[in-house]
Design brief:
By secondary structure, the chain is mostly beta strands. The chain contains 2 helices and 5 strands. The protein has one domain: SH3 type barrels, CATH 2.30.30.50. It starts with 7 loop residues before the first strand and ends with a strand.
Length: about 90
């Protein structure tokens, strides 16, 4: 599933073991896609030694700081993270 600019998304849960590029503090947090970067080999697969890793779209997602830090941040602050498609689900 490809995401569009401005689309609301929710980050999934990081893998319980092994390498992932999804920060644990973003698990289950809602954000907005603000940039499509392109398609790249999934680092999780590379770290697992997969000879032909999956290729996925990479997105910059903006999260409001209060969403990430459970309200303990200024309302206008935000955090951006570059996240692979499989780390995200639509939040429409």
């Amino acid at each position: 599933m490809a995401f569009e600019l401005g689309e609301p998304v929710r980050a999934g849960e990081p893998r319980p073991t092994g390498h992932t590029r999804l920060p644990a503090y973003l698990a289950s947090k809602r954000g907005i896609v603000v940039r499509t970067i392109g398609a790249f080999a999934l680092p999780d697969d590379r770290a697992d030694g997969v000879r032909e890793p999956r290729v996925e779209n990479l997105y910059t997602v903006r999260f409001s700081a209060p969403e990430v830090w459970n309200g303990d941040a200024a309302g206008t602050d935000s955090i951006c993270a570059d996240l692979f498609e499989s780390y995200l689900e639509s939040d429409r």
